[in-house]
Design the sequence.
């Protein structure tokens, strides 16, 4: 059974800092891994989808990497902004981690 | 496309009442998923359909929960009778098909059972 773990559970950083969110999964037989953002009281917005054959995917200030063999993915956010404050979730085979709650302080 | 549409956005009901949550999926997206989100347990997959057929309902917590997809444009999740511990946000999600496609979520229904 796939299990997904996200560390840290919460993170608070000053504006402008670069940061890394971590996601680990137990079953490496995956098709893809997806990172989502969730704002309070809202649904999930897809940020990045990495196929199993890819090592990384980039969108603007976001970069996600995937290491299938070690069961890990990271989401790198460059030059963080207060508007990045949200909960970030990763999903593998539509099994979700519990997310990392990010707060970017002005 | 308007994306995945869920209704109602908020539902408050008394314990013991029947509750029906609705989802209109994205046209042409063959997979539909129902999730429940709570602070304690995070996002839990309840059931998913492929081409309107239920494939895996092992996440449905009890017989009080049932889900249907009578056609490609509509799905329901029903709780009868409802209990306070069912209070959560329920999400509907779609995948177009195949193994490498992106998942899209609705805005969710916040259910409160008092």
Sequence:
């Amino acid at each position: 059974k796939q299990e997904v773990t996200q560390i840290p559970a919460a993170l608070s950083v000053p504006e402008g800092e670069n940061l890394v969110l971590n996601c680990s999964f137990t079953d490496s037989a995956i098709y893809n891994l997806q990172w989502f953002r969730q704002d309070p009281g809202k649904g999930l917005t897809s940020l990045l989808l990495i196929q199993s054959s890819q090592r990384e995917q980039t969108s603007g200030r976001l970069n996600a990497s995937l290491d299938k063999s070690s069961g890990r993915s990271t989401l790198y956010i460059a030059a963080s902004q207060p508007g990045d404050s949200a909960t970030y979730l990763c999903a593998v085979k539509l099994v979700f981690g519990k997310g990392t709650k990010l707060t970017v302080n002005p | 496309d308007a994306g995945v549409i869920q209704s109602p956005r908020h539902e408050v009901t008394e314990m013991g009442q029947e509750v029906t949550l609705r989802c209109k999926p994205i046209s042409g997206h063959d997979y539909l998923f129902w999730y429940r989100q709570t602070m304690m347990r995070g996002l839990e997959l309840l059931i998913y359909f492929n081409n309107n057929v239920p494939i895996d309902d092992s996440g449905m917590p009890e017989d009080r929960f049932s889900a249907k997809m009578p056609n490609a444009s509509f799905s329901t999740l029903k709780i009868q009778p409802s209990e306070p511990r069912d209070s959560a946000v329920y999400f509907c999600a779609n995948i177009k098909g195949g193994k490498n496609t992106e998942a899209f979520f609705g805005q969710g229904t916040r259910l409160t059972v008092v």
